[in-house]
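tool_call: predict_structure(chain=1)
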Amino acid sequence: MKLLLAGLVLTLIVGAQAQWYRFPGEAARGARDMWRAYGDMKDANWKNSDKYFHARGNYDAARRGPGGRWAATVISDGREMVQGSSGRGHEDSAADQEANRWGRNGGDPNRFRPQGLPKKY
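tool_result:
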């Protein structure tokens, strides 16, 4: 009976964690998505576009899976923490975090897209 119970518990644990091995790859690809959005933001150099690129980076990363979502959260929160301590406005940081959450939760990044931003972004 104990062996049967142990087998059942093991099966439930393994079944719940069956995708653990994908997490590191998802996290790495999610970090790459965040880096690509940052690079595109710098390349575009478009006024009032930072919220769009925040949302897009988080959206792309989170679509990778739990690892990508985790990477997006860590990178976004870390970035805002560093920039918040540099004297940047609290309101701007809060707006960035709103865009980050919007993208991570599957919201369309185009909500934050500035008018006239080239289509390649």
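agent: Residues 1-112 form a domain with the Topoisomerase I; Chain A, domain 4 fold (CATH 1.10.132.110). Proceeding to next step.
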